[in-house]
Each structure stands twice: as structure tokens, then as C-alpha cells.
Amino acid sequence: MKNYFDEICKKIKKEIEIEDIKIVDNSHKHKKHKFYSSEKFHLQLNIKSIYLNSLSRVSAQKIIMKILRNDLKTKIHALEIRIEK
Description:
CATH class: Alpha Beta
Structural class: alpha+beta
Order of helices and strands: HEEHHHE
Distance between the termini: 27 Å
Strand order of the largest sheet: 1-2-3
Radius of gyration: 13 Å
Number of strands: 3
């Protein structure tokens, strides 16, 4: 799991300039949900980026979603993105 989270960080850092990124795995909070799958993650990304802060929230989130589009199809069920100042 840690390796996969490192992979996510590398993908994002490769595409955009960020100062810091933290990934929180909230999958355990969703075990009783109807479409829960132990093979997919419920993640929260906490990203500190001057670049992303210069964009609208929607534009910044679209960039992150585009970078992780394949992961969203295969390994990530839910993604919460927080752009920190």
C-alpha cells in the first residue's frame, strides 16, 4: 500500500509543482457502504501547491483527476482533494 501511495505522489509531482502532499487512506470508514471493495481505496489528498492555489478550485481538482484518471478506473473508488494554502 505504501508503495502505491508513493506512486501516486510521483505521478502528481511529475506533472505539477507541489510543495507537499499527504495521502490519507479513509477506506476503513467505508467498509459498510454498498459498493465497498477491499481492492479499491477511499483516499484524501492534502496538497500544498502555490501553482494549484493560483487556479480555481475546480480547475485544480480537474488537473489532479486527469493525472490520476487511470487509477480512478482501477484502484481508487473515492478521492477527496484538499488544496492547502
